[in-house]
Amino acid sequence: MVQEENSGEAEAIRPPWLHLLSAFLSMEPSNSIISISRDCGGGAITESVQNFIWDHCINRADGKGHVPYIRSFLKKLILEIESEGAVVIDELYEQLAFYMASLKGDDSAKGDSRIIRKISFLYPADLVESRACQSQRKLVVPLSCSLNMLEGDTGCSLWPSSLFLSEFILSCPELFSKKSCFELGSGVGLVGMCLAQVKPSKVVLSDGDLSTLANLKVNLELNQMNANVECLHLPWESALESDLQDLKPDIVLGADVIYDPQCITHLVRVISALLTIKKSNSGQRDECFVASRGQSVAYIASVVRNIDTFNYFLRVAKEANLRVVDITENVKMYNFLPYMRSYQRSSVRLLEICYTFH
Ligand SMILES: C[S@@+](CC[C@H](N)C(=O)[O-])C[C@H]1O[C@@H](n2cnc3c(N)ncnc32)[C@H](O)[C@@H]1O
């Protein structure tokens, strides 16, 4: 994980050039990067834009980038420039020719499905100004992800709700500061990396899939977070209520975990157990309030892909005495990912959940 202060390179590279670099590092689709390239060149992919792409993106990757991704981007970029009747700089042609010539012996082209995406959270200028002590302008989180969506039971890909939840955490750090946080279905772990930025008392990430958990540990290492963040194997189906209640988190988080109807009753049972605390002697549940009133709360971000599944979740949650409120429109969210054109922030809903007594 890289943090950049107000000086140095972060100062030198400004939007839209910073957006171009960030989009390349996060491995955005080629069309998005080409569109930002045009913004940089005032509508055309000029030679100075091409030189920037060469110097800051491709040449700087220095053999560490994912060759098939860069090759495909270069191909589309060159075609685009040629179709505009503009001049393509030699370096781009030569690099593409090099990749084409060396492709046959390139293992990464044959299907090594792991890639490192570097997600840059760019602090908006008004936020940097409004937080007097905020010297940070950029947070870069490298993440090992899979190119194959289904590898690791979906948990090795990055989902839009975790981008949203990460932006929520960085927008409202006071909600998480000095709180113990527990995430369900953590996947590649982006939410945990952002949580670690906002001074929580504890962060525990969990997932039910073992290959996802192994990848999550790789990501904690990549970000030097092993010492700050704990990992737990937690399949919702077999999680014991007594174990869950021992965890006693102040805040439960989850991103894109409401999608499989077969898991919903288990997911709700786990959330419910995490949000309630048993009185030590009687074994009865204490009352639960939202975090702002000092008690446990869950924040679950979700893209509603299937309305029946989502409504089923709401119904089961209600039966379990969970109060679910859609707070998407009520939170002041900053845009930390202005370059990420593939991410549709408006497709994500943010739910605040707490346990209620009747
Ligand atoms: C769609 S992915 C979301 C991953 C991550 N939160 C994100 O937004 O990028 C769903 C995650 O929930 C985990 N998961 C799904 N069903 C589960 C279950 N029954 N118990 C525990 N984890 C589960 C998956 O392994 C996966 O990591």
Feature tags:
Rossmann fold, alpha/beta, 10 strands, 358 residues, 7-stranded mixed β-sheet, 14 helices, 2 domains, binds S-adenosylmethionine
What would you say this structure looks like, in words?
With 358 residues, the chain is α/β, with parallel strands linked by helices. The protein has two domains: 9-110; 114-355, Rossmann fold. It is built from 14 helices and ten strands. Strands 6-5-4-7-8-10-9 form a seven-stranded mixed sheet, with helices on both faces. A three-stranded antiparallel sheet has the order 1-3-2. The longest helix has 17 residues, at 67-83. The radius of gyration is 22 Å and the shape is elongated. The model is unreliable at 278-293 (pLDDT under 50).
CATH fourth-tier homologous superfamily of the largest domain: Vaccinia Virus protein VP39
Class by alpha and beta content: alpha/beta
CATH architecture of the largest domain: 3-Layer(aba) Sandwich
Number of domains: 2
- Give the termini distance in whole angstroms: 45 Å
User: Widest sheet: strand order?
Assistant: 6-5-4-7-8-10-9
Output the CATH topology of the largest domain: Rossmann fold
- Mean pLDDT over the residues: 88
How much strand? 15-25%
Ligand roster: S-adenosylmethionine
Biggest pleated sheet: 7 strands, mixed
